[in-house]
User: Fold this.
Amino acid sequence: MLTTYVNVIVPLPLEGTFTYSVPHNLAERVRFGVRVAVTFGASKVHTAIVVRVHQDKPAFNVKDIVDVIDDQPMLLEQQYQLWQWLSGYYMAPLGDVYNAALPAGLKVEENYKPRTETYIDLCESLRNEQSLNVALDLLKRARNQREALMHFLHISHWETIEGTQPTEPVVDITREELMNVSRCSYAVIKSLVERKILFTYEREVGRLNDHGEEHLENVKRLNEAQQEAYNQIVFQFLKKNVVLLHGVTSSGKTEIYIHLIKKALEEKKQVLYLLPEIALTVQITSRLRHVFGNKLGIYHSKYSDAERVEIWKKQLSHHPYEVVLGARSAVFLPFQRLGLVIIDEEHETSFKQQDPSPRYHARSAAIVLARMYGAKTLLGTATPSVESYYNACQGKYGLVTLTSRYKDIQLPEIRVVDTKDLQRRKMMTGPFSPPLIAAVNEALKSGQQVILFQNRRGFAPMIECRTCGWVPKCTNCDVSLTMHKSMNLLTCHYCGYTYRIPTVCPACGGTDLRGRGYGTEKVEEYVGQLFPDARVARMDLDTTRTRNAYGRIIDDFSSGRTNLLIGTQMVSKGLDFDRVSVVGILNADAMLNYPDFRAYEHAFMMMAQVSGRAGRKGQRGKVFLQTKNKDLPIIRQVVENDYQGFYEALLEERRLFSYPPFHRLVYVFLRHRHDDVVETAGIEMGSRLRQGLGERILGPDKPSIARVKNLHIRKIVIKLENGIDPKAVRLYLRTVQQQLLQDKRYAALQVYYDVDPQ
Assistant:
């Protein structure tokens, strides 16, 4: 009997596949896409996945596989093709792609356990106004417990109790969420439970969408402009595989997507709907569930591993989700009949994976995935990326424009505020200008809502000793530590290193330590002082760590429970609020002065997007754009919503300096514990690359942050003109890397690539 062999991928950062033999008793169960247990190295067992079954005896000794885990494949052919493309194009080991693609639960053999979460609620005896007031009085001396209870009452809506009934629907709160919002310890909640003020209970968390049947009658009719855009998209799809929908903010793009999804489902096709941020899925989910019911599946990183495993298996079953809504990782899901891919807010940099490898762009991956299935791709945005718009103008993509807002609402009035002049005249109150303060007051008094945009979390970017100028730095990275006042911590946003805020300067013994700059937390403090009656919410990475946090913050703002939202770039992306009349961009310069060739592109998009949150239904909104450089052309382009002018100016600049879309970029990063080793390695690799690629090589140079997690970094930039063979370049890079790593000095050197950096 001939021996059967398999080529497998192991979940390790290694290139290519590995060959194993199959014991005769397991041969019948082995096929493409099933998982097998294999020993790798001395004795470590890994869950590998089979990508080829054959009887070609290798020229070297091989081990047997240990076991076959699956009866049915966990990987489809199209998925494997995507993996191969990602590995080749982004120069990432195939093992890294496997690690990124499969949920962790499919890489280990673990018994299924129902997922439960601990929820918290108000004890029955306190569910009346009088008893609740008595309980709050009893906690006057237990400050932490009282604050935790106040936070609970607020976010659960029990604070709205009148008599024995709350005036608003009570929201279920998990213990973890309460600890995150109130920043209290487990012990504080335990004390409230022991005092019979709160009680806890376990609830099995449903992993899959069971929100009933579809209701296609809920699909709204398109207005004339939307219908015209829809017809053009359908027509363009006859000629092009990819179409760009360039529609101004609040033009009703989502409604067009719903009609296109409905059409795809009628054709018995599946749909993948990608969003850049998990926060956006909260609003879009309710709109899609309202129409498509249990045909809709959600997939993103906030889901538990068991949930993701279940969704993966459901997609392989005979009854998969017809519509999948998700963040970038959703491109890896198995699809059987994919017909349409929608990439909303296609310009967003969040679609690009940074760390760990593979450093793929979900937009590019989704376009390739769609091509493998013969599906169509729709890119939608109010501010297209330069590359996408260029491809559309060149005829590579179809182009459809939507220039009018829904119900003909005017674009917001954008007022530029010169903070340089106001600071000189000492008229600024922290990060707030007088016109912005007046507009916020007016909006709040008239029952409208306000969004304040500050693209930096924490209290302050750094603290400084006013006596000697000492600034605390991270011990592992070349960055200053960000001040988080509420937690009394200085934190590194690169490695997570923290320590308590000092009261005395270690350099000079001075006590005048102050925060420099403004983060969202400090803005929140100023808002509390300037607008004491405002009901404030903050939306940044610190306040959205728990699973339900996004939904709670957005629901509260949508319903009017909060009327002033402070946020980082999360608030700039596609959120739809009815009553927002004022938007404040507190510091436009922070985005413009970033050392990157894409800085102006990102700044324009972010300012245009956050401006679009103002003046939705009913009246024209106002935007206050605070800057010290009011005469910059980009400021005028944002004010006039002149995307075309911005694009043409930027395109000329990109052509002049050999940047995308005219050249492809590859960044080569070298990392080592010793600065002198990485310096010589960088010089040597740069020299070798120049031998084959000439003036296309720039560097090596130190990046703006030259040490992260105690590893020193050097960066080489490669500019490749359109038309050059990318496969030949990749092969040459690999060859140079292998030659370099043969030198014993560089045995511990890490080399990785960032293709098409964002």
